[in-house]
Amino acid sequence: MNLPRTDKPRIVVIGGGFAGLNLAKSLNTRKYQIVLLDRNNYHTFQPLMYQVASAGLEPDSIAYPLRKKFRNMKSVHFRIADVIRVDSKEKSITTSIGELSYDYLVIATGAKTNFFGMENVEKFSMPMKSLVESLNLRSRILEQFEEALIQEQVSEVNKRLTFVIAGGGATGVELAGALSELKNKILPKDYPDLDIRNMSIHIIEGSDRLLSAMSLKSSHKAEKFLKKLGVNIWTSKRVKDYDGETVLTADGMEIPTKTLIWAAGVEANPIDGFQAEDFNRSRFLIDPHCQLINHANIYAIGDVAALASKDKKPLPMLASVAMQQGNYLAKYFNKNRKFREFKYIDKGTMATIGRNKAVVDLGRFKFQGTMAWFVWMFVHVMLLVGFRNRMIVLVNWFWNYISYNNGSRLIIRKSRENHLLSELQKDEKLTHS
Ligand SMILES: Cc1cc2nc3c(=O)[nH]c(=O)nc-3n(C[C@H](O)[C@H](O)[C@H](O)COP(=O)(O)OP(=O)(O)OC[C@H]3O[C@@H](n4cnc5c(N)ncnc54)[C@H](O)[C@@H]3O)c2cc1C
């Protein structure tokens, strides 16, 4: 790979997500040559992807060009590359644009959707783990209303107006809230020829409550908010199959629908070249300095890494963990790898259900409703990368709040074409490997 020659040790960072970006921007460029690799040329703010999918925000406002972030840091070299394999003995990596050697390697490749081996679900459902998938979902949702308009049979109309979300975690809850807002406030004006009251939204959750990672109080309040908005909540049920027409649960419930949104699980997204003993499930096992337990000079941070916490459970896959690990590792390298161990500071969890409705758990403080909604908005705006993005999101939210008329209800690419395209890409990958 073509990179400037230097005497400085080279740190290669794979992934410009929350972990990789926070690391790369804080490393001392006088001490190290930094090479940042990502398969995309932008950072994605995943917590707001559901607003792109539900036509609340433009995709550009939650993505940030990685080159722009590093234009004043001459010793940070960004390349668009898909990293395929690590050779820890040779201290080199294989990428889609060639081989690259490293002195230190940091793997920050995040997570990917976990379909738990259900092939049909993978084929027919809509995941939301990338910006492209969020846009595909937006198209799919809007297409359903266009198609419903031209159906003659009531059952076919209803199938298109039924939206099933698998997974009642923060993503599922937030998406259900956003879809209800579309149903109650926006779509009736866009589709006067369609009886939008027939639109139904379902959440199917495997555990016995929504937001199972949050307090009972927040969980119950979220359920109450969603029920008030008309969302159907099915707990202690698991999706077993989906053929593109009907969702089937393990206990035999069937829901006819053209749209199953898959928000029921993620797994780490590691790189090839390692052994089973390097992993806890699919997450790299790391020590308290974020170093792989079996490999000197290789580190892993963010969703792809499993650092045991005090109670021996791996830390949750959260942006706050990824950011703190990125910041920590930068200090660790800047202090010549003589630095205290990483300690996670739990800054709480939150989820929003819609306007004036959110739930927040901040240590002993748990609150819900309008105050929680303002806290949720403030935290998310502050965490967005780039002043311009913050302003755009704020203006959009303000406009949506007063006008009930967000302006991104565009079908840019047909979701059927997108699906075929990703199937083709999968086939191509299989042929190459
Ligand atoms: C819909 C959704 C909502 C969420 N909401 C919240 C929330 O409200 N609060 C919260 O704390 N967390 C939330 N999360 C989780 C949070 O987004 C993740 O914990 C966080 O993104 C992890 O950061 P990371 O840097 O480990 O990975 P990511 O941010 O996923 O970044 C990984 C990067 O690696 C790149 N990459 C992957 N593989 C390769 C490869 N082989 N070669 C090159 N590049 C590669 C990717 O392109 C990506 O840029 C949400 C996640 C999702 C999907």
Please outline the helices and strands.
Blueprint lengths: L9 E5 L3 H9 L6 E6 L3 E3 L4 H5 L9 E3 H4 L6 E5 L2 E5 L4 E4 L2 E4 L2 E4 L3 E3 L5 H6 L1 E2 L3 H19 L4 H7 L1 E5 L3 H21 L9 E5 L11 H13 L3 E3 L4 E4 L3 E4 L4 E3 L2 E4 L3 E3 L10 E2 L2 E3 L12 E3 L4 E2 L12 H16 L14 E6 L2 E6 L2 E4 L1 H14 L3 H17 L11 H18 L1
The site of flavin-adenine dinucleotide has 34 residues, from helix 1, strand 2, helix 2, helix 7 and helix 9.
Features:
single chain, alpha/beta, FAD/NAD(P)-binding domain, 12 helices, 23% strand, globular, binds flavin-adenine dinucleotide
Describe this structure in words.
The structure is a single chain. The chain has 433 residues and is an alpha/beta fold. The chain has a domain at 10-113 and 267-334: FAD/NAD(P)-binding domain (3-Layer(bba) Sandwich). 34% of the residues lie in helices and 23% in strands. It is built from twelve helices and 26 strands. A five-stranded parallel sheet has the order 5-2-1-9-22, with helices on one face. Strands 11-18-12-13-14 form a five-stranded parallel sheet. Strands 6-7-8 form a three-stranded antiparallel sheet, with no helix packed on it. A hairpin with a 2-residue loop joins strand 25 and strand 26. It is globular. 43% of the residues are buried. The site of flavin-adenine dinucleotide has 34 residues, from helix 1, strand 2, helix 2, helix 7 and helix 9.
